[in-house]
Amino acid sequence: MKQSVAVTVNGTQREDLVEPRMLLVHYLREVAGLTGTHIGCDTSQCGACTVLLDGRAVKSCSVFAVQADGRSVATVEGLAATGTLHPVQQAFWNEHGLQCGFCTPGFVMATAALLEQNPSPSDEDITKGLEGNLCRCTGYANIRRAVRSAAAMMGGQAAAPTGSPAAAPAAAPAATAGS
Q: What confidence tens digit (pLDDT) does each residue in 102-128 have?
């Protein structure tokens, strides 16, 4: 028997009927049509499905859609709602904090949550803040650099990596229509 859920997704109120066992990741992809949240492992190990639930980073493959009833969900699509990349998205682009890109939405959302809680993270804070996300392509150096760059763009100042000078973040180009 389906249940009604009322969820605010990326600032838009939705009301849908879902199976009680439907995972939030499947709700977002199949019902809401937001495919930026990726399904990587279905066991909460990889973090590709990370979204913000009431501002807190969660793995949407470990939450039922009915558990989001009455709550607010932010996905990677919702970060750039104004047509301009969010500073975290821009930093991942500028610093090449991705390779194949499959894990990137989860890292972006985990970074957004980290920087909301700690605008000036140390390397240790960055490692701890992103520990639930896995990338199979990179060595994480560019991801850490992207987090530091995003912190600087957002007004915080992440600590320089141990043993190296702080790098100035690249200027964020303006988004244009059709980009």
A: 999 999 999 999 999 999 999 999 999
